[in-house]
Write a structure and sequence with these properties.
Layout lengths: L12 H18 L6 E5 L6 H4 L1 E7 L17 E7 L2 E7 L10 H4 L1 H8 L4 E10 L9 E9 L27 H13 L4 E8 L8 H9 L4 E3 L3 H9 L3 E11 L10 H26 L6
Parallel strand pairs: 1-4, 1-5, 5-9, 6-7, 7-8
Antiparallel strand pairs: 2-3, 3-4, 5-8, 6-9
Helix pairs in contact: 1-4, 5-8
The chain binds hypoxanthine (HPA).
């Protein structure tokens, strides 16, 4: 054992990998499910759980090695079932760095999904809009991101079986999936912006000076999730698509104090459109299975 207290990283890759395998084995033992589509039901996609034919719901609490939920969190569940006939595995509830989880804990479920056979990951989130052309309650398809979290789920020894030491990030958000999302938006007459998601650790909202800085360096929206999951998904070569619900307007020269009820209302307003786009994409990429 290395007892040098200055050794930077105590992360044990073999243990972590075994934990992911054990979690996946538990899920498999509960329900024999073959889904290549995974969903992270963040803000704006909660309703999708009701649209699913859920065959098995497994509480995160019952999955070995899953992070324990914090008090402020609803109980998280892994939902195994179908959406419009297409087999999907959905995460109802996600983990955030601001809750105190490590990047490895935040992304543990993504490792499990990939181990279970998921190849495509569809994600939603909430974020503040910094682009003056974007309005509260509108949707933005993420085309790229900037990681300002100061953390990365891939630090420490690399697990070569999962992916490369230096993963490529030239196109983290799959071009074909983005086209499908745009087609769905067009078909349903939904306004869908495109832009760059800038990730911070939170939990506080940003100062005016920070919004000004984040806008200048190329961010269209700022939020506290998604980037760790996408980094890990790309490490394992999963295709990713992510859509943001713009829940508040972060214009530094006209900044209003955040109103949580307003944020919730904006998320609720956007939900039907985001659900429609996501269901459409699932139908396009999935192979419906007749029960
Ligand atoms: N900043 C960071 N994260 C957020 C915001 C914001 O303004 N709105 C929703 N999530």
């Amino acid at each position: 054992m290395n007892t040098n207290s200055q050794h930077a990283d105590t992360f044990d890759p073999e243990t972590y990998r075994e934990q992911v395998e054990e979690a996946a084995a538990h899920v498999r033992s509960e329900h024999d499910h073959k889904a290549t589509v995974g969903l992270i039901l963040g803000t704006g996609l909660g309703q999708l759980a009701d649209d699913m034919d859920v065959e098995q719901a497994i509480s995160y609490h019952d999955i070995p090695h899953f992070p324990e939920a914090t008090v402020e969190q609803h109980e998280g569940k892994l939902l195994l079932g179908r959406l419009d006939g297409v087999p999907v595995t959905a995460m109802q509830g996600r983990f955030h760095l601001y809750e105190g989880y490590s990047p490895k804990q935040v992304t543990f479920p993504v490792r499990v999904l990939a181990t279970l056979g998921v190849e495509t990951l569809l994600i939603s989130n909430a974020a503040g809009g910094m682009n003056p052309h974007h309005e509260k309650g509108e949707l933005m398809l993420i085309t790229d991101h900037i990681n300002l979290q100061g953390r990365n789920p891939l630090t420490g020894p690399n697990i070569d079986e999962w992916g490369p030491r230096f993963p490529d990030m030239s196109e983290p958000y799959d071009v074909e999936l983005r086209e499908l999302a745009e087609e769905q938006a067009l078909e349903h007459g939904i306004k869908l912006h495109e832009g760059v998601y800038l990730a911070v650790i939170g939990p506080n909202m940003e100062t005016k000076a920070e919004y000004r800085f984040m806008r200048r360096i190329g961010g269209d929206v700022v939020g506290m999730s998604t980037v760790p999951e996408v980094i890990v998904a790309r490490h394992m070569d999963l295709r990713c698509m992510a859509i943001t619900v713009i829940t508040d307007e972060c214009f530094p020269d006209a900044l209003e104090p955040i109103d949580v009820e307003d944020v919730m209302a904006a998320a609720a307003d956007a939900q039907p459109d985001l659900t429609r786009i996501t269901r459409g994409v699932v139908r396009e990429i999935g192979e419906p299975v007749v029960a």
